Amino acid sequence: MKSEPIEELRRSGEIVFTTDGALIVSGLPLKLLRWIDAQLRQLGGSLREIQCPALIGRDFLERANYFESFPHGATRVEAIRRSGLLAPAVCYHCFGILTNARLNTPAEITCIGKCFRHENGRTDAAGRLWEFTMREFVFVATSEVVQQQRRDWIEKIRGFADAIGLKGQVEIATDPFFGNASRGRKLLQQLKELKYEFSVALPDGSQRALASFNLHETFFTSRFGIKLVGAPQAHSGCVAFGLERWMLAILAQRGIDESAQLCG
């Protein structure tokens, strides 16, 4: 993957990496960012859509056992008469909406919002940002249906990447999406193939994930009291996309002119 297009856009001021790990875009990068989200939204079909807030309650993340997996990943916010945390993923808001729901049919939701991940203060120009935009697709159904949804999404993203000439691969992820982050828990999640990622190569030879495909089993549905009529247990899963990473990867691999052609 070449970095020259991104450097050129940084020099022109269309991409600005702030010192605190955020990204300011205009011109082609902004147009490409919106185009990517529109393509993903189209792949998802006609679903209920949610615009998620940046702030989320600490008690909610504790109920989701977020701090067991990522004890230093959330950013605390103090404001007048209110305190909380900046959301590390938008799917948590979906489970908040579905709390104690008794579903007559499987639920499929798409959501978008700003996410914030501390990751021990590490940020870089290749897409490891503190603040970024996440598009997610969340589904609650039987185990078989959720697994099929994930298989379908993996094929959709492989097809989408091929269609736009983006080179990457889908592989089992090594980091947990939920639960304890211990070595044993990580190995168990790998053995059960609960998380896959679509990743691309960076100029230094390392990999950067652009999407994750996750099976939650009954982890979230049990914690938030979500039931599915006619099923002994409701399972959930999600597919998540970091939009800024997709934009940067396309620019780096396709270059400015070809990226401009993609988004018209």
Characterization of the model:
This protein has 264 residues and is an alpha+beta fold. The chain has a single domain (4-54, 87-262), classed as 2-Layer Sandwich (BirA Bifunctional Protein, domain 2). It has helices at 4-12, 27-44, 58-63, 66-69, 91-97, 143-163, 183-191, 219-223, 243-262; strands at residues 15-17, 23-25, 48-51, 55-56, 75-79, 82-86, 102-103, 107-116, 131-141, 169-172, 195-201, 207-217, 227-228, 235-242. It has a seven-stranded mixed beta sheet. β11 (195-201) and β12 (207-217) form a beta hairpin. The longest helix is centred in the middle third of the chain and has 21 residues, at 143-163.
CATH topology: BirA Bifunctional Protein, domain 2
What is the string of SSEs from the N terminus onward? HEEHEEHHEEHEEEHEHEEHEEH
> Quick one: CATH class?
Alpha Beta
Question: How many helical stretches?
Answer: 9
- Give the low-pLDDT segments: none
Q: How many strands appear in the DSSP assignment?
A: 14
How large, in whole angstroms, is the Cα Rg? 18 Å
User: CATH H-level name... which superfamily?
Assistant: Bira Bifunctional Protein, Domain 2
